[in-house]
Fold Lipopolysaccharide assembly LapA domain-containing protein.
Amino acid sequence: MKIQWSLILALIFALITAVFAVINVDPVQVNLLFGSVSLPLILLILGSTLLGGIIVGSFGIYRGYRLQREVKGLHAKLVHIQEATGYIFPETEKPERGKKKKSAENETEPGTGTEPVEEDSPITNP
């Protein structure tokens, strides 16, 4: 859900930026360190927005790479600790999708001959 809201906000921001850029089409003088250039303001606005998006995207990619590397390192430490101590995580039982989970009261173990006993009926041993 968070990704969807981020996408919607990004599209709204892009629309506002595009409308703002289309309104401002007059040429402007841009002073650089080594000289000056005359550009239409629409190109300057769109170029600055694109450059900002590239910078933010590269920081996001770098952060994801760094976190992925940290997760791999922590996983390697976990495996090392498990091998050193012999500890094994207990596996949790995950029910299959679309099927109801069987309760322990209604199951019979194969080969034991035991049937589930209702609570109201008397228990007799043969």
Q: What stands out?
A: The chain is about 55% helix and 10% strand. The chain has a mean pLDDT of 81. The two ends are 61 Å apart (CA to CA).
